[in-house]
Amino acid sequence: MPNFVFWNLNRGGLPRSVGYLALQQNADLVILAECTMSVVELLLELNAERPDYQFAPGNCEHLLFFTRFNSSFLTPRLESQRVSIRSLDLPARRPLLIAAAHLPSKQNYSDDSQIFESVHLARMIEDVERTDGHQRTILIGDLNMNPFESGMVAASGGLHAVMSRRVAARHTRTVQRQQYSFFYNPMWCHFGDRTPAAGTFYYDSGEPLCYFWSIFDQVLLRPDLLHGFSHDQVRIVTEIAGVPLLKDGCPDKALASDHLPLVLQLDF
Prior knowledge:
The chain is α+β, with helices and mostly antiparallel strands. It has one domain (3-265): Endonuclease/exonuclease/phosphatase (Deoxyribonuclease I, Chain A). It contains five helices and 21 strands. Strand 7 (96-102), helix 3 and strand 8 form a beta-alpha-beta unit. Helix 1 (15-24) runs parallel beside helix 2 (39-46). The chain starts with a strand and ends with a strand.
C-alpha cells in the first residue's frame, strides 16, 4: 500500500530530518513545500540508507517531489506557481491523479481572495480529470484554510470537500442546476485532543477570535478512492526518529517547522 508524505518546511528544517521522515514512514512519494534545501542535499539524505529515491522535476515553484517509483511514472499534467497536478501511472495499477498545492497564506490574502484561489484550484483539478477520464484524485498540501472555511466546503466557490463519507459517496451535488463533484475530507477527525497534536499549525493571536490550532495541511480524496479507506490511513506526524516535533505542545519551528507533516496510506 503506497505511502505519501507532505511537509511544509517553512524555509527551515534539515535534509536529515526529511530523510528520517521518509524512512520512518516508508514513504513512496515525498512532497515538500517552502523548501530552501537543494535537491542534491535532499537526495543524499533520502538515499542515505538505500539508493531508492529520485527527484521528479516539474514547473511548480512552491513544491518539490521525490519518489521511490521511477520518476517517469509521475507525469506533470497541469501546473502553476503553487499547484502541481500529476498522473501517477504504476504498472498493474489504475492511474492516480495527485494534486499538490501550497495556497497563499492568511498573512497575505483575505478570506475572499482565498476563495478565488480555491475556485481556481478546483477548476484545474476538474480540467485534468475531464481530460484523463477519471476521478481517482488526491488533493494534498498546505491549503492555508481550515476544513470548515467557505473555500473548502462550498460547491460553486470552493473545493466542495465534506466531512461526511456518506455524503461524499453521492459523488455529486446539484446547485442551481449545476453539478459539482465532492471531495471527502478526513482531516475533520484530527481536530482536538485525540492525538498529541490538535491540528497541523498553531497560532496564538491577541485577537478576540482565535482557534489556536488549525488544520491547514490537508488530504482530500475523491469518492472513487474511498473503497477500503479508513481514518487511520491519514496521520499527523509529531516525532521523527524519536525526536519530538512539538515543544510545549506546539510545533517547534526552531527545530524543524511551524507545520507538522502529513502521511497518507492509500490502496488504489
